[in-house]
């Protein structure tokens, strides 16, 4: 029910508390936090820059969120996705799903992050040690994860 | 119409966004890409492999055969890697 696309960091505990406070119908809340993984094996802090498509990003995240509410009886949900330059260990994304029962909260949370990965227009530019950079390639495993929830018409080929 | 390029498509074409008057030869996304490729070697190279390109028309996912009238916002970008 809420979408935020922001440069700033977020606090997971604060967000969960704000989402679930004063709603006694919530019996379970599940969250997923995505972090920047260190790709350089400790030799040097690795970093990346996240680019996105302002306007479409918010639209797609809202559509994914609405789809989750259609599929599961959710009392509350939240998607926060950061953009800009992030370093290893930084939080990138937060997904929260809250429901009367845990099964719905777990499934909806997984669905939200799986669909987000293949449908939200974000691109990661990774910095490497020698100062060059490369665009992260989409993974087939992410398409497969999204396809489990079927009706995956998001990231299909243009050709 | 407005054309937007993201990620390596933005880098290779050297353009983030531009306004163009749609040529009469353009009917859909495929013919738009064909026309864009004629604008220079950087465009030809960036747009050569359409299987590596995703398209949005008016911020909705589209395909090569999505028809265009000339007033749309068309975005070209690689497969998404968020999350």
Secondary structure elements and pairings:
The complex is a heterodimer of chains A (159) and B (83).
Chain A: E1 2-6, H1 12-20, E2 28-35, E3 47-52, H2 56-71, E4 76-82, E5 84-87, E6 91-99, H3 102-119, E7 122-127, E8 133-135, H4 140-147
Chain B: E1 2-5, H1 8-13, E2 17-19, H2 29-37, H3 41-46, E3 54-57, E4 60-62, E5 73-77
Parallel strand pairs in B: 1-5
Antiparallel strand pairs in B: 1-2, 3-4, 3-5
Task: Explain this structure.
- By secondary structure, chain A is an alpha+beta fold.
- Chain A has one domain: Aldehyde Oxidoreductase, domain 3 (Alpha-Beta Complex), CATH 3.90.1170.40.
- Chain A is built from 4 helices and 8 strands.
- In chain A, the strands form 2 sheets. A 4-stranded mixed beta sheet of chain A has the order 1-4-6-2, with helices on both faces. In chain A, strands 5-3-7-8 form a 4-stranded antiparallel beta sheet, with no helix packed on it.
- The longest helix of chain A is centred in the C-terminal third of the chain and has 18 residues, at 102-119.
- Chain A is globular and about 55 Å long.
- The N and C termini of chain A lie far apart (34 Å).
- Mean pLDDT of chain A is 90; it is low at 152-159.
- With 83 residues, chain B is an alpha+beta fold.
- Chain B has a single domain, classed as Beta-grasp domain (Ubiquitin-like (UB roll), Roll), CATH 3.10.20.
- The chains are: A alpha+beta (159), B alpha+beta (83).
- The A-B interface holds A 34, 50-53, 55-56, 59, 81, 92-93, 113, 116-125, 135-138, 142, 153-159 and B 4, 6-8, 10, 29, 50-51, 53-56, 59, 61-64, 75, 77-83.
